[in-house]
Specification:
Layout lengths: L9 H4 L6 H17 L5 H8 L3 H4 L1 H24 L1 H20 L4 H15 L2 H12 L2 H11 L1 H20 L4 H23 L14 H13 L2 H21 L2 H9 L3 H20 L1 H30 L6 H23 L7 H30 L1 H32 L1
Helix pairs in contact: 2-8, 2-10, 2-11, 5-6, 5-7, 5-18, 6-7, 6-8, 6-11, 8-18, 9-17, 10-15, 13-17, 13-18, 13-19, 14-15, 15-17, 16-17, 16-19, 18-19
Length: 411
Amino acid sequence: MISPLSSLAPDLKEQLPASAILGLSVASFGSGMSMRVADSMLVKLADTFAINLAMASLVITVFGVAYGFMQFIFGPLGDRYGKYLVIGRACLACACTALLCALAPDFYSLLFTRMFAGATVAAIIPLSMAWIGDVVPYEQRQPVLARFLIGQILGLSSGAFLGGFCADYLSWRVPFILIAISFAVIGFVLLRINKKLPASARVLHIAQGKYLPRLVSEFSLVLKISWARVVLATVMLEGATVFGGMSFIASHLHTHHGVSLSAAGAIVTLFGLGGLLFALRSGIAVAYFGESGLIRFGGLFMTLSLWSIAYAPVWWWSLPASFCFGLGFYMMHNTLQINATQMAPERRGTAVAAFASSFFLGQSAGVAIGGLVFVLIGSDHLLGLAGLNILLLSSVFLDFHQRHKTLMSSN
């Protein structure tokens, strides 16, 4: 595998510590675990606290809402004080909020602490992407971003498996303790790495003026860009459709096919392995398919995968389907990410924060609606509708993307 640092701009390539991007990837591992650890525990939480599945799914919703709204804080903070420094300190805060989740005495306390967990985790991946965008040239950025996201992909898979395993054999509190420990370690490591970064890789944009007017101004300038509005709307709908379905795959396998929660969580980890395949071969995939091909086939893979899981007569159909679902998601989502890092280069931290905010607010709405649909018409129809919506979304975005590329090439 080519080292991510080999793609850096010449003036930064020799100065950055070799562990700089690796450290961010490890932090994104903890972020991914925190995001998805509750998915395969929903049935267990519903039983433990004597609530229905729609109510239990709020532990995912409140996390996403807090994650989304905190982008309005972390994006400008990263631009002003240095993205790497803010990420390191946020990891230490994540350790505290994860521990509070583990200690929650009742369901409403768990909701409250999960909200704070989402608020602190919010800094990690968006600011990491923005920092990479600052130091890696655009034409080389997509494979580097894909390799950085290996940490998040493995974290998503580990979170789903760990949540299901602990729900069956240990306690739902155990995963949060492990997440707290991992965040504490990587937080201190990132702060040490930050001290070794050259000044040009610490703060690349100094914002001026009072905070609130500056905050409004920064996001307003991003939203004035028509292509930015298209990307942000697309990623919000992507978050709603993809995770409004994915968050209930483990519950679907448990209720429809009698699969244990630990086994269902293990099946969902194949989503991450599909994403890992894309990350490891992203350079080849980008060269072969191009951005338009990644959007087209990514949407198609996700749709067919969800339909297979929803209406399969036997549970084992979900094995290849989960793998292809992850592959398709990262084909499309990584293309959205690369466009997000370039839609407003002069205020990249704010632009990527707006991207992440849209994505997670979409997730929150999708999971909340998905929980109600699950209770009202069943998980099979929920997954089927999510697949149809993804197909429509990818087709519409592909059309916008091709128009944008044509416009850019003509200018």
